[in-house]
Amino acid sequence: MAASLDLIVSEAEDGLRADVALAAWLAEPRARSQARLAAEEVAVDGEVISKSRRLRSGERVTVIQSPSPPAVPAPEPVEVRYEDEHLLVIVKPAGLVVHAGAGVREGPTLVAALRAMGLPLAPAAGESAKETAPAGPIADRPGIVHRLDRGTSGLLVVAKTEPARAGLVAAFAAHQVTRRYWALVDGVPDPPNATVDAPILRSTSDRTRFVVDPGGRRAISHYDVVEGRGRAAVLTVRLETGRTHQVRVHMAAVGHPVSGDTTYGASRTLTAELGLTRPALHAAHLGFAHPVTGDHIECDEPLPPDLTTALAKLRLEP
Question: Has residue 74 been placed in a domain?
Fold first, then answer.
């Protein structure tokens, strides 16, 4: 049952905006106090007020306090493959989203897992006075300089300090980071080695999908068939650019969607036979010059069990 809290405005608080005073009283972010006011959970002398309402000394402010939501358990720790004072390279498991955003407001995230591990993270882009924030929410992106889709497993570099963050952002923009993915795709691509240079744009009919479109941003992927046996093939895919869903969109565009990726047309029959519950895509290699020391950092990550199991069912080698 919701409870109420009564507060009396002091002389020192006379003239304060309601949201400012409420945030101070309840020791919460002003955005949370503004949400309370928008939800009509705050009244002065029995009358609901807006966030911009100026309070007067002696007024009684009543706040309806909703029951606290159940505590969200801390995310499982992630494995670390390299760490120093400036950055770390971690292994993101499939199913874990990197950070909260427009499509993800609840549930565990990689950022939450890193915070729960007590790791320092560089400020998010735009939190520096010298940098303009990108479009979209940034508060839950500390340390993040690139991303992997929720369903993709593998290596990710995270910045712990501002010099590392700025240097890594510049390196990604200049295509100076080597990223190689392991992918299992439906069918066997022909030719076995090719470059896909096709611009990618968010779909106008389904905002969760992306499409190859002349009006999109340039995207370049290089693939090599490692082994193929009729129904599926193992590929190594190297990225020059890092568009959202890039490997998945490009392989679907050439007629060989990533196995298990039914969003982009993978065979549901083969997906079921292989026991896949996500796209068979894994960030297997990451190489870059350390943005602070200049040392060359290189990491390789073996396949997780679900992908080795899928391979065993196809009798293909990694």
Answer: no
Residue 72 lies in a domain: no
Say yes or no: 56 and 183 in one domain: no
149 has catalytic annotation: yes
pLDDT in tens, the chain (318 residues): 456 788 888 888 889 999 888 888 887 788 888 888 888 889 998 888 888 899 999 898 988 866 555 566 667 899 999 999 999 999 999 988 887 654 444 457 888 889 888 888 888 654 443 333 333 333 457 889 998 999 999 999 999 999 999 999 999 999 999 999 999 999 999 999 999 999 999 988 888 899 999 999 999 999 999 998 779 999 999 999 989 999 999 999 999 999 999 999 999 999 999 999 999 999 999 999 999 999 999 999 999 999 999 999 987 655
Catalytic residue among 149, 186, 295, 306: 149
Q: Are residues 60 and 92 in the same domain?
A: no
Q: For the chain, where are the alpha helices, taking DSSP H only?
A: 18-26, 30-38, 110-116, 162-173, 246-253, 268-274, 305-314
Structure tokens at 285: 């290699």
Domain span at 14 = 3-65
